Each structure stands twice: as C-alpha cells, then as structure tokens.
Amino acid sequence: MGIVQQPVPIAADRSDIFPLDRLRALGAVAPTTRARMDQLVELAKSGLPRMYRKGLFAHTVRGVNTAKGKAVRAEGDSLRYAIDVALGLSFTSIEEQRRILKGVTAADLISTTATRAEFSSDPGAVALAAWTSAEAAGIYAAPLFNRLTAWLESGEPVNTVDCAWALLAAVAARHLGDTARLTTMARNRLIEAQGPFGLFPHGLPASSNGRWRAHVGCFADQVYTIQALARLHVASPDEEALAAAEACAARICALQGPAGQWWWHYDVRDGSVVEGYPVYSVHQHAMAPMALLDLREAGGTDHLAAVVKGVQWLDTHPEIDTPLVSEEHGVIWRKVARREPKKAARAISAVTTSIRPGLHLPGLNLLFPTTYVDYECRPYEFGWLLYAWLCGGTVAGLSGRDPKQAVSRTWGA
User: What's the mean pLDDT when you consider all of the chain?
Assistant: First the structure.
C-alpha cells in the first residue's frame, strides 16, 4: 500500500483531547435539545454495531415486518459509509470503538478503508478516505491525494460534494504533504460556481447536471461546501472563501421550513426552493449542525437557533405522527417523503422551475402528500452525527494555534 505514515506516535483516542464544546454550546441556548442530542449520540453508538458485518459496514439497515413485529435487516456494503463512521468514531473512546467494531479501533477501520479507496473508481470515496486519514490518523495518503489532484486537473465535470470533500481533505492534510495545488483547484471550482444568492449547483459546471437540472443544487451541495470553505479560511485566511460560506449559510437558514425542515432542492439562480421533500433526518441532526457549527467556529455567523430548530423537527415533525427515532431498533428512520411514483414531484418541479424560477405545479401537495416514512437508516447518518457533535476543537486547530490539534496519530494504538 502506498500510504505515507507520519512518524509521530501519539494516542489514537481523541475523546479526552477534544472537549464537548458543541454540546455545551447547544445546552447554553436550548438545554432540552442538548439533552435530546445526548440521547441521540448514545443511540448512534448503540445502533452502529447492528450495521457492522465482517469488518465492513452495510449500505443500510432496513425496517422489515416479521411475525414478531418490525425488525431491522442489514443490506449491502458501502465504502463511503464506512469511512464516515471511522471519522465519527475517532472522537469516541477506544473502549467504545472496540465495542462497536467488535474488537478493532477506528484507526484500524481507517487503514482498511484507505486501502480499499486506492482501488475505488468513486472520487467521493477517495476524497473521504484522504480527509479521514489525514484528520483522524495523521496520515498523508499520497496515492489518494495524487488521484484527487489528477482528477481536478483533468478539467472534467465534477460533483459539488466530491469537490468539497477534496478541499476538506486538502485542508486537513496541509501540514502532512503538499496539497496546495489541490486546495487551489477545489476552492476555485466551488467559488466560481456559486450563484448570486449564495447557493451552489449540483454539478461543476452547473451545465453538467443536464438541461432540466442545471439550476438545481441539493442540500448536501450546500452544507459540505460551507464546511470546506469555512475550514479553508481558518487554515489559511481567505476572506472570499469565508464570505462564500456565509452567503450560502444565510440563504439556507432563511429558507428553513417553519418546523425546522432543511429542504432538499434549491434554485441556484434566484435562491428559492425547487422541491422541499424528502426531509432527511441526517440533515436535521448531523449535516446542518456540522456545517453551521464549523462556520460559527471559523468566525462566521452564529446559526445555533436554526440548528436547534432543525434538531427539534425529529420529534415535532408536523407532516406525520410516526416517531422517527426508534430506540428499540437503534435507528433514526431515514426520511419523510411524498407518496409519489419514482420521485415524480422532484422531476416535475425541476422542469417547471427550469422554465421559470418559482414556477410550481398547482396542487402538488394534494397530489403527492408528505406522509411517507422511509424505514431505513444508513451508517453514515450515525457517523456524521457523532462527528458533528463530538469534534469540538477541530476547526480551531486548523489555525495551528491550538496545541491540542498540533498532533499526528498512528494506527492501531
């Protein structure tokens, strides 16, 4: 394997190095929500072992009906999701890691997934593995960074999320290897694509997303880009990057639903919502908090009120009466969606808004009501939940001024 290991051995357990700053900040403004997040953190730790099989993480665990009632069944395998889990688990204690991973540690999982990523054709998996190896293990995964650099140098269209992850990897590894070229290319591709209202399209360039969807950006395109640009500003002060992250965060917060919903598809041209559903649980408890708290810690605007509102939707969603958090099954059910055939509402809304911004088919909510619950839960949802709420100190450490972050790690300690 071509991965380069930095020669500074330190502990592989960051649970006592990084304080629970984010949960404390949450508790200061919303004690009840803090208590709920504490419960969800523990739920993630108890639910992940059900998703772990033979050294790998399943693609999903799906709720199935049995003679004894609903049960969950693990299905498939996902390299991306295993990497996400490894990053989140690196902020738990070694004892918790070994319990969840059946004897091994997050560092062991990082090593395994980084090796698998070397042979992956998925740029997103390569970027995630490079980021996680650098940040959580102090490892400069040279083959992965070489592939990411060549990928962006090719000039071919890229997905916004994959590009944001490449920038996150480059920022995390900047003191371990030469990531300057990758940083510049990823940063510029993102900023050049930003729309006039702060939002980012799904593809770079936007036209690569097709005629009817060139104007559309999804929620993930916004949050990972906010996170990447905010961290870049901390690592090497970049006011333009921070301003871009600020504009995007301000817009998605302005568009947040009345019950705290983080909507799914946006129109980059006029900063409106193309289609709100599904509302994904992971956006509410993990992805939005992860990005907005990164921005806050990077010196940007404090959007804690929006974070609180988003988390509260998990228990107070007005769309349905069905609970989304299941302690019994160790899951948070994946999403609330429309009852529709083959994502019809999203397809219709993409076409109508491509013709004219804000043009929506009348009666869409009556035709496709938002009463469907997706009874599955994917490992990355818990990986990001742990990371979002337990990684306090990581952003500040990118400046090089925090001695708690000025460390490297070895695998398998």
Answer: 92
